[in-house]
């Protein structure tokens, strides 16, 4: 870990192989860099400039969640394929550019690239299959002419739009998974009005479910909203830690209160608390509900299932485990956040201290900046941390409940795709 100077304003910051449209192998590229110039001699300046712009934008995007960033990357890939189709000579060159672009976008922010890489790899598999199917159809018809790059680009755009349409329903499935788990397995609040046993909530009576979360992941929004819609007798007391330095916790509160149907408002009770109150909040909670930016599927059984998530999550989990042992720690996330077993260890991102000091009183900030050269004063600002598997009770995805074995299998699937396309 490294602390930053108060005056630091900098933003958060393979061997070559042959390329073949039929095999999905990767074109020769240099080591990961935000500058993509000179990657392929036959790539136009327009394509390079567009890809540079996309990668730079992703590298400095500290606002979008992982799912939103993955969807944006898909849309950008479609645009880039369309632009490249006007400059390449044949299908193989277009495929090489597509692979190159996907690889660069997958590496834009290595610390939180799991969803982007997984989403793009699965899109590559579908695009390749569609193009190969088109080639096979042409070979069976002697009168047919080979598809031009622009025609292949239109096929890719159709495939990507289909994936984006499917992703639009992923949040619904994620919310349904959470609702099912709550109905079947969630602990009962000590304040419930029901008289049933402690084995689980009885939705024939009114129950109060106390949930603590932090940050503003889309998965949490979907999970809470779907639970309110599909469990009509449950009341939720939702404690949201404000999540400095960007204060995204209140953003989640505002989104829930402004977008949830009015008929569920009387069953949603939101409390926003400062991060420093985490221990006090943890004493009265049934579930700690967290999103994930990355889930490890390492071959090491001890690290499989380790979750990378918002800074402050580990404190929330540890405090709850100590102060409310019966509470459950739940990870609610898209399965695409599971990384391949061989994925490098997570490297902390360093963010400019201004993100933290912006909330300080101007006179205090001015005084400390003036004294910094005379004293040992730094600002710590990392936005992500890991929660070990042994502290987590359940992983919920759009596909349902996963255990460590399910996490490992999902990681192996994405690892096979990465080897196939990126080498």
UniProtKB/TrEMBL annotation:
What the entry lists under InterPro entries is as follows: IF-2B-related, IF_2B-like_C, NagB/RpiA_transferase-like
Q: Which Gene3D superfamilies match?
A: Translation initiation factor eif-2b, domain 2
Q: Which domain of life is it from?
A: Eukaryota
Q: Which GO terms describe its molecular function?
A: S-methyl-5-thioribose-1-phosphate isomerase activity; transferase activity
SUPFAM superfamilies (alphabetical): NagB/RpiA/CoA transferase-like (SSF100950)
GO BP: L-methionine salvage from methylthioadenosine
> Which segments show compositional bias classed as Low complexity?
1-20
Pfam families per the UniProt record, alphabetical: IF-2B
Annotated spans, Disordered: 1-30
Which named protein is this? Nagb/rpia/CoA transferase-like protein
Taxonomic source organism: Pleomassaria siparia CBS 279.74
